[in-house]
Amino acid sequence: MNTKKDFHKIQFGKNIWICPSWEDASILPKEGVIIDMDSGLAFGTHKTTDLCLQYFGSKPTKRFNCD
């Protein structure tokens, strides 16, 4: 799997976006929660992913950077 070819911006719920570094986050809604994250092959396959996104979704609009 070519991660850069196969992983693009993804919206979760109404206002959460996961955006890898090779995608343009500036076109995403300013009122959204933007999580800058370069995904691995297992992204989204664990319950912790869902729980973390629920947590982020319950917070005021912020920008998160996951290095």
Automatic annotation (TrEMBL):
As given in the record, the signal peptide range reads none
Which InterPro entries does this one have? SAM-dependent_MTases_sf (IPR029063)
Pfam families to which the protein is assigned, alphabetical: PrmA
Task: Tell me the keywords, alphabetical order.
Answer: Methyltransferase, Ribonucleoprotein, Ribosomal protein, Transferase
Q: Name one GO cellular component term.
A: ribosome
Q: What's an example GO BP annotation here?
A: methylation
Query: GO: which molecular function terms?
Result: methyltransferase activity
Q: What is this protein called?
A: 50S ribosomal protein L11 methyltransferase
